[in-house]
Amino acid sequence: MCWCIHIKVNIMKIYINPLTVNSIKVLLLCNALKITPEFEEIALNKREQRSEKFLALNPDGKVPVLQVGEVVLTESNAILQYLANIHNSSLWPVDFSAQAKVLRLLFWQSNYFNAGLSPLAHRKVVMPFWGFATQELGVEQMAKFHQAVSALEAQLKESTFVATESISIADISFAAFFIFAEKAEMPLGQYPNTQAWLKTLAIQPWFSKTKAYLDHILTK
Fold first, then answer.
1. pLDDT by residue (tens digit) across 189-202?
2. HEC assignment per residue over 97-129
3. Model confidence over 128-150: pLDDT tens digits?
4. Helices (H) and strands (E) in the chain — how many of each?
5. Can you list the domains of the chain with their CATH numbers?
């Protein structure tokens, strides 16, 4: 007699738009973890994020969204922590003190840093790719940019990487904002710590693989 055991395997699916910074965070981490979830692209320029199907997953109408079985998780930094944790990655430190440092930087990034950095690459790289006119940033927005990068520069005086002395999901989260730094002509010349940090990340296989993928999209 044959006893067959049927095990339900939950497929990990992630809804993204690969050119947006919060989705880039997830792409970077998936490449770092060497995992290949099922990705579904949501065309924000076609307002697919406002479809009934997508709003049922995330009423805020934002990407990324992670779905594994009955688990639906929004907010990019929460997704980073979840993925790194379930894969037992050193990118999510074991030490509670280090975890607290990572979380502190992620909370700060999602508010203050995001407002300073996101508009530059979005307006000068992503929007033109979608067919919209390039938008130059005004004096006030550029001031926010420099305030945010200055704060990161000061943080990088304290540690080799953003939160601790080794690469963590905090570095991945922050790195996503700079992946189009050259194309967006980000003025980083006065920030040597930030430049050194970016050079270290740029040689990581997961960073170069993600960047090559995004550059390929932009050439289509």
1. 999 999 999 999 99
2. HHHHHHHHHHHHHHHHHHHHHHHHHHHHHHHHH
3. 999 998 888 899 999 999 999 99
4. 10, 4
5. 12-86 (3.40.30.10), 96-218 (1.20.1050.10)
